[in-house]
Amino acid sequence: MTLEQFLILHPKKYLIFDLDETLAKLKIDWSTITRGLFELVATFDEPLTKQLYPKRFSAIHLCNTVVKKHGQIAQNILNAFVEEYEREHYSGYIPNTLLIEFIKSTKEQYSNYLWTTNTDGVISDFLNKENINGRFTKIISRKIVAQLKPEKDGFDLIYKSNTPLSDYILIGDSINDEGAAKNAGIDFFKIDYFTRHNAPLY
User: Fold this and answer.
1) Contacts from 11-14 at CB under 8 Å and sequence distance 24+?
2) 65 or 199, greater pLDDT
3) Which residues touch 75 (CB under 8 Å, ≥6 apart)?
4) Beta carbons of 116 and 18 less than 8 angstroms apart
5) pTM exceeds 0.70
6) N- to C-terminal Cα distance for the chain?
7) Integer CA distances (angstroms), 153 to 88, 134, 159, 160, in order
8) Is 186 helix (H, G, I), strand (E, B) or coil?
9) Is 56 helix (H, G, I), strand (E, B) or coil?
10) Peptide bond into 11 cis (omega under 30)
11) Which of 45-54, 91-100, 123-132, 176-185 comes out lowest in average pLDDT?
């Protein structure tokens, strides 16, 4: 079922899009980011890294756990690392042409939001090149939220008081996106565009 078909059956007003692997496949080699984050956290909380590492925590789980314990200072340190990592490893993107065209062709029909764990540099590059920078009511990047998806901090910045949760939907590709939708109490639509098209990462 396409997103258009889903929305006919389940009408929504507010569409919340993920970025990487949803609107585009970012050309970033993520293979060393988790190790880099663990090494960074070890410089100020080595016991925590030893506690978490055997559990094979992902980079996102590590970041959320560290920020819960250490607060804004740790968040700034981690975000600076991820921003530099993305800047050094980013070489472009592969667009989800179907979803981008949907956003362009339905601009009067929905209020669109972008909720992503990526940093501002890659977000701006994608939005500007696809000429959809003005199509989002609000952009929630990793630097504005304390807790990343699957936590619902980003949705709390999107939600309009006194509107029904049934008017919202999160459109993404990952288990973290699905978990964020569940934690926010809204519907989720899974994007498998890049799986189906076998788009290369590099």
Assistant:
1) 12/110, 12/166, 12/167, 12/168, 12/169, 12/187, 13/110, 13/111, 13/163, 13/167, 13/168, 14/110, 14/111, 14/113, 14/158, 14/160, 14/163, 14/167, 14/168, 14/169
2) 65
3) 67, 146
4) yes
5) yes
6) 28
7) 27, 23, 10, 14
8) coil
9) coil
10) no
11) 45-54
Residue from 4, 24, 26, 1 nearest 15 by CA: 4
What is the DSSP code string of 67-132?
HHHH-HHHHHHHHHHHHHHHHHH---EEE-HHHHHHHHHTTTT-EEEEE-SS-HHHHHHHHHHHT-
Residues 6+ apart with CB under 8 A from 43: none
Q: How many CA atoms lie within 13 A of 45 on its CB side?
A: 21
**120 C-beta neighbours (distance < 10 Å), count:** 14
83 touches 119 (CB < 8 A): yes
* AA identity, residue 94: I
- CA nearest neighbour of 158 among 134, 138, 188, 186: 138
Average pLDDT of the segment spanning 161-166: 96
Q: State the pLDDT at residue 54.
A: 63
Distance CA 68, CA 92 (A): 32
